[in-house]
Amino acid sequence: MESTLCKVVEGLTFCCFYLLSNKSFRRPRKDWRTGAVGFIWILGTISTYFNITKHQTESPSRLIAATTCNIASVALFLWVLLYTNAPSKRPLAACFSESFPSLIHVDGPFSLCRHPVYFSYLLKWTATSLATDSWLQLMFPVLMVCIYTYTAKTEEEFILRGSKREEYVFYSKKTPMFIPFMKM
């Protein structure tokens, strides 16, 4: 039962992220970094499909944790999209976009962490590693932490060169980058 539920939730999570990401973000100019992240997502998806089919863990507690992480990742992602696409807000730019924000989001999901979309993705990659007994699958959360940290820092450096610098500095001092309630 847990095994089938975990597989269904894994598949639905990937579909949700793919469909909603393509429809919800302002697109940047094409950039090698955007292509690299997309390529790694594709590799991760293929690896997840293979590993969850061939090497799924038998541990009910790990399957439940993986399913919980997947559900939390989608819930957070949907919250961000509903919040930023509200009439009074502005949709987020996709990663590596070089457009200065006209609005710094500081409440809603952004009151928990500065990059809730990346945190939702990290929850998703953590879920994939929990669902399998494959050491290969552990590589993806670690790799994605490195990529999202680089991406977030690049975006923040760009914001700090714009007119919202002081507002963002104040916000970043009181709000963690990724993990809610964990100042780093």
TrEMBL record:
The keyword Transmembrane applies. It is a multi-pass membrane protein. Gene3D superfamilies: 1.20.120.1630. Keywords: Lipid biosynthesis, Lipid metabolism, Membrane, Phospholipid biosynthesis, Phospholipid metabolism, Transmembrane, Transmembrane helix. It comes from the Eukaryota. The chain crosses the membrane at residues 32-51, 63-82. InterPro entries: Phopholipid_MeTrfase. The keyword Cell inner membrane does not apply. This is Protein-S-isoprenylcysteine O-methyltransferase. It comes from Planoprotostelium fungivorum. The lineage of its organism: Eukaryota, Amoebozoa, Evosea, Variosea, Cavosteliida.
